[in-house]
Amino acid sequence: MVKLIDIYVNSLNAFNVRTFVVKKEKAKTGLRREAFTKVEQMHPHQIMLYLALIGSTVLFLFLVVAFTASKSATTDFLKIEFPKFFVVSTVLMLLSSFSVSKIIPAYENDELEELKKWLGITFLLGLAFATSQFLGWRELQVNEILFSGDRSAAYLYVITGLHVTHVIAILLYAVRLLVKCNKVSLDAVQSLIYCTTPYQKIRFKMLTDFWHFVDVLWLLLFFYLLFSF
C-alpha cells in the first residue's frame, strides 16, 4: 500500500513538473510573439531609430572602455577640479527631459500652442546644453587639458563631443517639427489634419525617445567622469 502511495505521489509530482514546464514554454512563446507583434507594428523609421540607438550605445561603451584603459596614475586632468559647466549641462539636460515629456500629451490633446511652447523650450534647453559643453571644454583647455595632449584627454573630448553631436542632430529634428507645427497652426483645416495623422505622433514619439536616450546617456557619462576626476 505504501509503495502504491509513493508511486502515485511521484507520478503526481512528475505531472506537475511537466505542466509547469509546458506553461513556462507557452509563456515564453507568448512573450516572443508579443515582442514580434510590437516590432511589426512599428513604423520603419522607428525601427531604424532604435537600431541606431543600439549602435550608439555599443560605440559609447567601447569608447568608455578605451578611456578607462588609457588612464594612468600620472594623467593630469584627473588632478584638476571637475568642469563646472559639465554640472550645468546635467541640470539643463534634466530640465529638457521634463519639457520633452510634455510634447506628446500636448499633441494628443490638440493643443498646438502648448505643443509649440514645449518644443521651443526643449530646443532652447538643448541649445543651452550644447553651449555649456563647449564652455566645459574651455575649462579643460584653461587647465591645459588638450585634445592633442594626453591620450585619455583625447578620449574625453571624443566621448563628450560625440554626445554633443547626438544632441545637435536631435535639435535639428526638433526645429523641423517646430517649424511644421507653427505653419499648420495658422490654418484650422491643416491643424485638424495635423492632429489626426498617426505619423505625426510617431514623429514626436521618435523625438522624445531620442531625447530621453541622450539624457540617460549623458547622466551615465557624467557620473562616470565625475568619479574619474
What does this entry look like structurally?
By secondary structure, the chain is an all-alpha fold. The protein is 85% helix and 0% strand. The chain contains eight helices and no strands. It has helices spanning 2-41, 44-70, 84-100, 103-108, 112-142, 151-184, 188-196, 198-228. Helix 3 (84-100) runs antiparallel to helix 5 and helix 3 runs antiparallel to helix 8 (198-228). The radius of gyration is 26 Å and the shape is elongated. The termini are far apart.
Share of residues in helices: over 70%
Low-confidence stretches: none
Number of helices: 8
Secondary-structure class: mainly alpha
* Topology order in helix (H) and strand (E) letters: HHHHHHHH
Shape: elongated
Portion in strands: under 5%
Q: Over the alpha carbons, how many angstroms does the gyration radius reach?
A: 26 Å
- Give a short account of the largest sheet: none
Q: Termini, distance in Å?
A: 75 Å
Mean pLDDT: 83
Question: What is the number of beta strands?
Answer: 0
Q: Tags for this entry?
A:
229 residues, mainly alpha, 8 helices, 0% strand
Secondary-structure topology with pairs:
Blueprint lengths: L1 H40 L2 H27 L13 H17 L2 H6 L3 H31 L8 H34 L3 H9 L1 H31 L1
Helix pairs in contact: 2-6, 2-8, 3-5, 3-8, 5-6, 6-8
Short description:
The protein has 8 helices and no strands. With about 230 residues, the protein is mainly alpha-helical.
